[in-house]
Amino acid sequence: MSERSGSTDKADWSKKQWREVLTPEQFHVTQEKGTEPAFSGELYGHKANGIYKCVCCGQTLFLSDHKYDSGSGWPSFYQPADDTGVETETDSSHGMVRTEVTCRQCSAHLGHAFDDGPAPTGMRYCINSASLKFVAKKN
Ligand code: FE
Known about the structure:
Blueprint lengths: L14 H7 L2 H9 L17 E5 L5 E4 L3 E2 L7 E2 L8 E6 L6 E6 L5 E6 L9 E4 L4 E5 L3
The protein binds fe (iii) ion.
């Protein structure tokens, strides 16, 4: 099967292509490293059992098993789903030194990681709802 028209590798997609498939807020967060307003995202208080995937490429990023109520206003996880979904790197923008969390597959900006999370990891992955797509686990 040939897919010559349009790259299927979303890591190579242009801003123009992303703008066509994402909502303005999803685009701002994932492609411009934006942050949605606290308590605004629909997945903040979301407690259903399932998988949180990258809204851009569908990569599995986080699991409901690791989600907790951080009180921060953004969906928070104490660890990623596995070692392959997310990437972290130092972000020195906005006069702060933070750890940026991105999708390892398509480089979408997801949020930031802080070391004030609960046991067992002590980590808080503070993730924008706009960067996530929730898929309920089938029973
Ligand atoms: Fe992605």
